[in-house]
């Protein structure tokens, strides 16, 4: 069955439970729903399929709990190019095992361990029958807090570490308390939850540098970039002046994230990607979309876009056009799957 209820002032809640469905119907809904993010293949007899997924929307992040049978999860370059989703999912394995099929990122996660998935990067994983608790976060919120934001994909952190255990218990507590939280209470917990997550991920992180940055100031810089990405007057000088810091300090703060120019380019690429996938924008040329997002079409847009997403702008538009949601997915898109897709 499926259910969603933002009753009163409680936070939005979504539930999928296969127990009341025939196995074939349940599997169809599950695969169609997960197809919003992953290609999924079951590793057991389809007749035995059962799953439960429950989620709460905390305003800017989504917390989900999954219980399902052994299966594989694939996220390819083509899929990334089609959907443009670049969130992080921080998954605690509560029972069973989950890890990379090619051995990337270390051993499999077992009970209590933390496995990080960077949805902007391809990966292929497999699980045993397992239970998990997951925090899905937009990149714009977490990346500025990390020392190595692009080096987290399929990273495994042992659940025996004290900070990891503290973070795990925090998420368990969030999930348990969510049914009686108000929207304002839930939203007020996002910032401290992300601060705790960043502390865990920055401990023994695969650092590219030894920078010690101001996370709040860095987050302000990213917010300004996000808000003014299409402004042709956007510049490092202007942002530095707006925040009352020197241009040199701005460059220093942004260096762990690839630099100011790289961050502006990344935001503009995602805006262009979203417009290319938007059916209401199909009447506009690729060149026009590129220019409106701050790119010079003739010089670098197509090459930069392909380097980032693995497909050309025209291929991204074509791939989005090929995606026709099934009735089962239409039902589930009212729930947690749509929430995760729409996080930005």
From TrEMBL:
<dbReference type="InterPro" id="IPR020449">
    <property type="entry name" value="Tscrpt_reg_AraC-type_HTH"/>
</dbReference>
<keyword id="KW-0804">Transcription</keyword>
<dbReference type="GO" id="GO:0043565">
    <property type="term" value="F:sequence-specific DNA binding"/>
</dbReference>
<dbReference type="InterPro" id="IPR009057">
    <property type="entry name" value="Homeodomain-like_sf"/>
</dbReference>
<keyword id="KW-0805">Transcription regulation</keyword>
<protein>
    <submittedName>
        <fullName>Helix-turn-helix domain-containing protein</fullName>
    </submittedName>
</protein>
<dbReference type="InterPro" id="IPR035418">
    <property type="entry name" value="AraC-bd_2"/>
</dbReference>
<dbReference type="InterPro" id="IPR018060">
    <property type="entry name" value="HTH_AraC"/>
</dbReference>
<feature type="domain" description="HTH araC/xylS-type">
    <location>
        <begin position="219"/>
        <end position="319"/>
    </location>
</feature>
<dbReference type="Pfam" id="PF12833">
    <property type="entry name" value="HTH_18"/>
</dbReference>
<dbReference type="Pfam" id="PF14525">
    <property type="entry name" value="AraC_binding_2"/>
</dbReference>
<dbReference type="InterPro" id="IPR018062">
    <property type="entry name" value="HTH_AraC-typ_CS"/>
</dbReference>
<dbReference type="GO" id="GO:0003700">
    <property type="term" value="F:DNA-binding transcription factor activity"/>
</dbReference>
<keyword id="KW-0238">DNA-binding</keyword>
<dbReference type="InterPro" id="IPR050204">
    <property type="entry name" value="AraC_XylS_family_regulators"/>
</dbReference>
